[in-house]
Amino acid sequence: MIGAQMIILCLLLASCGQGGQGGGSKAEQLALEIRTEYIGMTACTASMDVTADYGERVYQYGMGLTWEKDAQTVLTLTSPEDVAGVTVRIEAGETALEFDGARIETGALSPDGLSPVDSVPALLDWVKEGFIAECAEETLGEVQTLRVCYRDPDAAAGTGTEASVWFDTATHGLVRGEVSVDGATVIQCAFTDFQMV
User: Fold this and answer.
1) Residue 112: what pLDDT?
2) CA distances (Å), 81 to each of 5, 60, 90, 128, in order?
3) DSSP conformational letter for 82
4) Rounded distance, CA 70 to CA 6, Å?
5) Which of 5, 96, 160, 176 could form a disulfide with 166, with the two C-beta atoms 3.0–4.6 Å apart?
6) How far is 149 from 131, CA to CA, in rounded Å?
7) DSSP string, 103-139
8) What pLDDT is recorded for position 24?
9) Computed from CA positions of residues 24, 28, 31, 35, in that sequence, does the dihedral angle turn out positive or negative?
């Protein structure tokens, strides 16, 4: 299995670097190093602010994340105040909101059914398995980051569903993630206190 992962990583190296300096650039090497770390990750925690843009409606949420490999993902809403305490459990393709025993469905933001609560597990999947279309080093505020863009290898930039993820170049923790559909950003996640095991 490790051999297969290394072959995939080598193949992806050829696709990375449109924002870098060509084959084998520092950004490309860092993107592959980070991917390997996330493939081996067994758990992570974080706090985040999530913005979901439905076009005519925009919602903002504060969330706490607990993710474990081969187990459920738990998101706890911390804001806005009227939904604070709602727990979101994602397990084996099933997503549900729970509050005092009540279960609520969430609306899809993309044709493939992506909802705001599915955004973090989807971002983690892209990091571990997505086709790396572009990567480049950028500064976000005072943080040096690596931005990696994932999309279908046959799709042009700005078409279909694509994700951009910014990693802290020092810790490799998630700093920011965005999901776009046909060039319009539908989900933005700003991470704080990202801890990886």
Assistant:
1) 63
2) 43, 11, 22, 33
3) G
4) 22
5) 176
6) 8
7) EE----SSTT---GGGHHHHHHHHHHHS-EEEEEEEE
8) 63
9) negative
How would you classify the pairing of strands 161-168 and 94-99?
unpaired
The answer to whether the bond into 80 is cis (omega within 30° of 0) is: yes
Q: Hey, what are 121's tokens? A: 């597990």
Contact 110, 122 (CB under 8 A): no
d(CA 29, CA 97): 39
DSSP per-residue codes, 144-174: EEEEEEEE-TTSPTTSSEEEEEEEETTT--E
DSSP lists the bridge partners of residue 94 as: 91
Instruction: Give dist(CA 11, CA 18) in Å, integer.
Output: 15
Is the pLDDT score of 11 beyond 50? no
Here the tokens at position 23 are: 């084959």
In a 3-state reduction of DSSP, which class is residue 3?
helix
User: pLDDT for 25-63, tens place per residue?
Assistant: 899 999 999 999 999 999 999 999 999 998 888 989 899
Cβ proximity of 156 and 165 under 8 Å: no
- Residues 76, 69: Cα–Cα separation, whole Å: 18
DSSP state of 83: G
pTM: 0.81
